[in-house]
Amino acid sequence: MGTATLWWRVRGISVGVGSELRLSEARIRKRGISVSTRSSCCSSPLTLIVSSMPYEKELAAAKKAATLAARLCQKVQKALLQSDVHSKSDKSPVTVADYGSQALVSFILERELPSEPFSIVAEEDSGDLRKESGQETLKRITELVNDTLASEGSDSFPSLTTEDVLAAIDNGKSEGGSVGQHWVLDPIDGTKGFVRGDQYAIALGLLHEGKVVLGVLACPNLPASIGSNQQHSSNEVGCLFFAKVGDGTYMQALGGSTQTRVHVCDIDNPEQASLFESFEAAHSSHDLSSSIAKKLGVKAPPVRIDSQAKYGALSRGDGAIYLRFPHKGYREKIWDHAAGSIVVTEAGGIVTDAAGNPLDFSKGKFLDVDSGIIVTNQKLMPSLLRAVKEALNEKASSL
Ligand SMILES: Nc1ncnc2c1ncn2[C@@H]1O[C@H](COP(=O)(O)O)[C@@H](O)[C@H]1OP(=O)(O)O
Ligand SMILES: [Mg+2]
Ligand SMILES: [Mg+2]
Ligand SMILES: [Mg+2]
Q1: 213 and 131, same structural domain?
Q2: In a shared domain, residues 136 and 170
Q3: Tell me: the pLDDT tens digits for 29-43?
Q4: What residues does Mg(2+) bind to (predicted)?
Q5: Which residue has a Cα nearest atom 15 of ligand 1?
Q6: From 229's CA, which of 111, 129, 193, 377 has a CA 20 to 30 Å away?
Q7: Is 191 a catalytic residue?
Q8: What are phi and psi of 270, to 5 degrees?
Q9: For ligand 1, atom 3: residue with the closest CA
């Protein structure tokens, strides 16, 4: 029969006989990739494997991990003891729930995805818990993790020892980067909001070759809607947002199973826009966002909430703009934006730095951004960028 010459040409890539090429339907649809074949032997087998569900296992594991971590955090927030709150070396607060959430997420991901390379870039480390003074706290965290696993109603979870908990926390020591796959975890984003009894989020993203491909945001205190858009109005709190690249963003009640696809709002008149910013003035300049809002003609007062819950709320159209301008010297971390950014972009929004550059998650733990981070829909971005540029120039010339 002779040698078959068989090529697949996919966006200019030639793939020889016997190779498998895995492409998602979503990627094919989104990027308009066309597949053509050329064969000198018509009986040659041609197998183009089109996987309709890339990152599906990872998403299921991430949703399970974030939901369990949210359960642990809710338990702690209800009965927060002064002794549960500690200060880190940078003076920011950390609680038993930050550590417990990180240990749980790390434990669940490793268990649910045993055959995958395992790397997590996470906020917390076990340094303080390994000291003599951290022993009581470590015991409390271990109890919390075990209680939460037991409440899953499954005997299949072993009881973790304090050493297991330390090891699970330290799985989060990866540096990330542009090669391979890395989970990115903020076990409690918005710890100050958590301690105050307000908003916080468990934020879990997945990087593949430096790009965010999946994100889950568990927001235990987020009502079904906030802000002026009453479409989702209800008294229930607790939302889980999730997104996979090319697949859209979805929201479900935390612990629920009915999912709804969400989209950013389609407002094109900035006067009708409402604007999110940090609750904590120390985390983001309220003066600068007020000057930007004035330039845009935004009428509504800013909605101030903690954490990446802002990204979740924006992804479902509760507000139109999120502005974040940390004060001089602060360096943004990837875990504060990875999950939130894909939740917004898959819902049709745009996330950039203040100069309009996309966020680059491939450089390790830190995000090097120009002045701040801005988020909005496609229609408002050009006028938002102009207003941000003007406000930053005015600020610079007044110094
Ligand atoms: N000085 C600071 N400036 C800006 N952001 C900070 C600062 N300290 C902590 N953060 C982080 O800002 C995020 C909260 O932003 P917001 O104020 O919008 O809710 C959190 O990730 C919080 O970390 P953490 O995860 O430890 O809570
Ligand atoms: Mg923190
Ligand atoms: Mg954070
Ligand atoms: Mg945190």
Answers
A1: yes
A2: yes
A3: 333 333 434 333 444
A4: 123, 186, 188-189, 336
A5: 307
A6: 193
A7: yes
A8: -60, -25
A9: 283
Give residue 383 CA to ligand 4 midpoint distance, Å.
Answer: 32
The pTM score is 0.86
Range of the domain at 22: 6-51
Helices (H), the chain: 25-31, 56-78, 96-112, 135-150, 162-170, 191-196, 286-296, 309-315, 338-345, 381-398
Residues 256, 282: one domain?
no
Q: Which residues does the annotation place in the binding site?
A: 123, 186, 188-189, 336
| Contact (CB, 8 A) for 142 and 102 | no
Task: Give the percent of the chain with pLDDT over 90.
Answer: 74
Residues 234 and 334 in one domain: no
For 302: left if phi > 0, alpha if psi spans -120 to 50, otherwise beta; the answer is beta
Point out the ligand 1 atom lying closest to the alpha carbon of residue 330. Answer: 3
Name every protein residue with a CB atom under 6 angstroms from any ligand 1 atom: 92, 123, 186, 189-191, 193, 278-280, 282-284, 306-307, 326, 330, 336
Considering every ligand atom, which ligand is closest to the CA of 188? 4
Amino acid identity, position 186: D
119 and 164: one domain?
Answer: yes
